[in-house]
Amino acid sequence: GIPKKFLGRYGKDLSSLVLLKVPGSSTWRIGVEKPNDGTAWLWKGWRELMQHYSVGHGHLIVFKYEGNSSFHVMIFDKSASEIDYLSSCISNLRSGFISPKREDVVKLEDSEDCTTRQK
After folding, report:
1. pTM of the prediction?
2. What residues contact residue 104 under an 8 Å CB cut-off, 6+ apart?
3. How far apart are CA 77 and CA 43, in angstroms?
4. Higher pLDDT residue, 36 or 43?
5. Alpha-carbon distances of 88 from 6, 11, 35, 75, 79, rounded to whole Å
6. Residues facing residue 14 across a β-bridge
7. Are the CB atoms for 22 and 89 separated by under 8 Å?
8. Best CA proximity match to 20, nearest among 8, 36, 12, 32
9. 67-110 confidence digits (pLDDT tens)
10. What does DSSP assign to residue 1?
11. Which of 17, 24, 45, 15 is nearest to 107 (CA)?
């Protein structure tokens, strides 16, 4: 789930749909489930994002909150190296993975705020 400390600070402003900006100009719209028990977690679209980038046990995902229910996301593999986002996409396409529906993905223009670090 989403950490309670984060929810305590920003939870009231967090909408039921968040934008996760992944290096390489992809933005994923992910649903947030907020039951009435003070918890919240990423829900609709989350599994597809994890499959798209081949994220599994041992990977690390870092979220930087940018406000307005928008996050910059970096994904690190088991060796703690940031993944090659383009290679992950190509690998999944070759393995027969069907990419998310077009309405689930929002393209961003190049931005100085979202740069991919070189390995």
Report:
1. 0.70
2. 28, 29, 45, 48
3. 22
4. 43
5. 29, 31, 33, 11, 15
6. none
7. no
8. 32
9. 999 999 999 999 999 998 876 554 444 444 444 444 444 444 44
10. -
11. 24
Q: Which of 71, 73, 20, 9 has its CA nearest to residue 44?
A: 20
Query: To the nearest whole number, what is the mean pLDDT of the chain?
Result: 79
> How many CA within 13 A on the CB side of residue 74?
14
Question: What are the angstrom distances between the C-alpha of 93 and each of 19, 44, 76?
Answer: 23, 21, 20
Alpha carbon distance, N-terminus to C-terminus of the chain: 30
d(C-alpha 31, C-alpha 8), whole Å: 19
For 52, residues 6+ apart whose C-beta sits below 8 A from its C-beta are 88, 89, 92, 97, 99, 100
Can you read off the two tokens belonging to residue 11? Answer: 């939870």
CATH of domain 4-107: 2.40.330.10
Angle at 97 between CA 44 and CA 24, to 5 degrees: 75
- DSSP character for 84? -
Share of residues in the chain with pLDDT > 90 (%): 56
